[in-house]
């Protein structure tokens, strides 16, 4: 996707209280110039990046979660346990990170370009929950790719991973709606049924009360 943005000059930028940065930019046209103000909320826990920026990057990716998973499996055969749209080395570049458990119980982290679907590289990881993951997936008929496809009906899928803890094993997916709202979902391992993650909503309520 190509975007053409012309900025004539940045005329002022000032930090104000409450962690808000205000930038004033001037754009030009044939009849004169117009001023445009943009306020960006700086978060203390994300290095100053706005969630709306993450939403824009997620929505602009050409490669979906299922496509990234399929690409990773062509490069590294095995069982995908998680896929996440994430910043590369804490930079502004976003990539798909796909964790694959191979047949010999080796863990591989595969990086996939979100624009082309090309595998950028991979490396092995040391994990100690292999037996737990294998047990959770035993008898499962829904793969990570299928879980991501099921959750895609709820919004742009930015992550999908296996929840192997607790009594109710499932796939978990995070989506972003066009307006930027995040939502967590559970996808049944045997039926692929998608339900809202109530535990996540309860945690949010508890945080609000605190």
From TrEMBL:
As given in the record, the signal peptide range reads 1-25
Disordered: annotated segments:
25-62, 150-210
Locations of Low complexity compositional bias?
150-160
- Compositionally biased region (Basic and acidic residues): 42-56, 165-175
Keywords of the record? Signal
One Pfam family linked to the record: PepSY
**Organism domain of life:** Bacteria
**Residue ranges occupied by any PepSY domain in the UniProt entry:** 67-122
Q: What is this protein called?
A: PepSY domain-containing protein
